[in-house]
Amino acid sequence: MTVLGAITLPGVERSVGSARRFLRDLLPEGGDVLDDLVTVGSETVCNAITHTASGREGGLVTIVLAAGDGFYRLEVADDGARGARPRVRDAGAGAESGRGMRIVDALAGAWGYRADGARTIVWAEFSVRG
Q1: How far apart are CA 89 and CA 82, in angstroms?
Q2: What stretches in the chain show pLDDT beneath 50?
Q3: What pTM did the predictor assign?
Q4: CB-based contact 65:23 (threshold 8 Å)
Q5: CA-to-CA distance for 71 and 65, rounded, in angstroms?
Q6: How many CB atoms are closer than 10 A to CB 11?
Q7: What pLDDT score was predicted for residue 92?
Q8: Is Protein biosynthesis one of the keywords (predicted)?
Q9: What's the CA gap between 96 and 46, in Å, rounded?
Q10: CA 20, CA 84: separation in Å to the nearest integer?
């Protein structure tokens, strides 16, 4: 895989918009895959800020976008959460939150997570449609 770009952002709400701009700037050609990738990037960065130590004072979120043979791979690394791991859950019809990983699951061709020391890295892959 070839890394197209990487950025580390503070764990604050405005970083979600910065993440979107960063991803759009890396893939300016647009299209469905870019829209899906940017949406998943937004959701995973928002989750990192909301549900992990990244959202605490001094917290960070790192985003890496790479290209493989026929796919893009997005990775979002957070500062870790005690025992909590990303999962798809049923938020219920009236819930105002809790749909982030369901969106990731619907838009990414594959996704998962891995621990890297204290950090958690959520990854998602997107097929390049031609």
Answers
A1: 18
A2: 95, 97-98
A3: 0.87
A4: yes
A5: 11
A6: 21
A7: 53
A8: no
A9: 14
A10: 25
Position 102 scores a pLDDT of 84
* CA atoms within 13 A of residue 99's CA, in its CB half-sphere: 10
Comparing C-alpha atoms, which of 83, 84, 61, 65 is closest to residue 74?
Answer: 65
Range of the domain at 25: 2-127
Q: How far apart are the first and last CA of the chain?
A: 19
Q: Which two structure tokens, joined as six digits, stand for 57? A: 């004072």
β-strand partners of 64: 6, 75
SS3 per-residue string spanning the chain: CEEEEEEEEECCCCHHHHHHHHHHHHCCCCCHHHHHHHHHHHHHHHHHHHHCHHHCCCCEEEEEEEEECCEEEEEEEECCCCCCCCCCCCCCCCCCCCCHHHHHHHHCCEEEEEEECCEEEEEEEEECCC
In CATH, what number is assigned to the domain containing residue 100? 3.30.565.10
CA separation for the pair 55, 52 (Å, rounded): 6
Q: How many domains does the chain have?
A: 1
